[in-house]
Specification:
By secondary structure, the chain is an alpha/beta fold. It has eight helices and nine strands. The strands form two sheets. It has a seven-stranded parallel sheet, with helices on both faces. Strands 7-8 form a two-stranded parallel ribbon.
Length: 295
């Protein structure tokens, strides 16, 4: 497979690169608040038992990997996908070792390619037997003031983050249109689809587009027995994010959350699993803010 000319950066979904120049909008939560300490990860409860789940941009340490792992914890068989073939292989091996009694497959895919996205859906259906859930996690971040932004920067972020979600949604709906079973799509949006943040115009526009795509596609998808919802995380800390963002900035952003801390990636993934499960059968076209109510 040819390497993409502009490989998508799938983690983190909205990495801030510069220190904020203005004070936090809210007072930090006291450090001694019981909610300031992240809880132990909730064990699985078979929410997705027997389901076949596909996750895009799942290689690494972020929300995609956490979503794939959570789906396995909840009893699903999983196919992980990513453009980076080496990391994808390592991810599949790691998950397969932890969940030896379940199916863990992988397929490389660059979501900027319609051909590869179509091949992902058809290949996943073949490898897993069918698809019940698609988690659209692929996204590209960046930090550039609008006056300095090039057309290429704008187009690249929109193409991976919004158009990639569109391509995968379209391919999945074409699959479900001819399938004898229902399905679920969960998109990874961002609170920046609602909030304003300096130097994030391209990313915020893309994520706002993902929200609108979620709402509109959900209306069409009902005809095929498919529910489509999205999550909108604020800040979730993980190893890759720590490599590209200063601890000082991460601490400053986390302090503005109602709990006085960032989310753990498993907390985002657990919400995604709930939306993919039969506990939300009358929920579609919704965007769930995972941001301590600071949408």
């Amino acid at each position: 497979m040819n390497k993409p000319t502009h490989p998508p950066v799938t983690e983190p979904t909205h990495p801030p690169a510069t220190e904020p120049t203005h004070p936090p909008a809210t007072e930090p939560t006291p450090a001694n608040s019981p909610l300031a300490t992240a809880p132990v990860e909730t064990p699985g409860h078979d929410l997705l038992k027997g389901k076949k789940v596909v996750v895009t941009a799942a290689a690494g340490t972020g929300i995609g990997f956490a979503s794939a792992r959570r789906a396995l914890l909840e009893g699903a068989d999983v196919l992980v996908s990513d453009w980076h073939e080496r990391r994808l292989g390592e991810t599949r091996e790691k998950l397969a070792a932890e969940f030896s009694g379940q199916v863990v497959e992988s397929l490389a895919c660059d979501v900027s390619s319609t051909e590869q996205v179509n091949a992902l859906i058809s290949g996943a259906a073949e490898k897993l037997g069918q698809i019940d859930v698609l988690i659209n996690n692929a996204g590209l971040g960046g930090e550039t003031p609008l006056v300095d932004m090039t057309d290429e920067e704008w187009d690249r972020v929109l193409d991976i983050t919004l158009n990639g979600t569109f391509r995968a949604t379209r391919a999945a709906l074409r699959y479900f249109k001819g399938a004898a079973h229902n399905g679920v799509l969960v998109n990874n949006a961002s609170v920046l689809g609602w909030r304003a943040q300096h130097s994030q115009a391209h990313y915020a526009a893309a994520k706002a587009g993902v929200m609108a795509l979620t709402r509109c596609s959900a209306i069409e998808a009902a005809e095929y027995g498919v529910r489509i919802n999205a999550v909108a995380p604020s800040i979730a800390r993980h190893a890759f994010l720590a490599k590209v963002t200063s601890e000082e900035l991460l601490d400053a952003l986390a302090s503005q959350e109602a709990f006085g801390r960032a989310a753990e990636v498993w907390e985002i993934a657990a919400t995604i699993a709930m939306l993919a499960s039969d506990y939300t059968t009358y929920l579609t076209g919704e965007v769930v803010s995972i941001s301590s109510q600071r949408a």
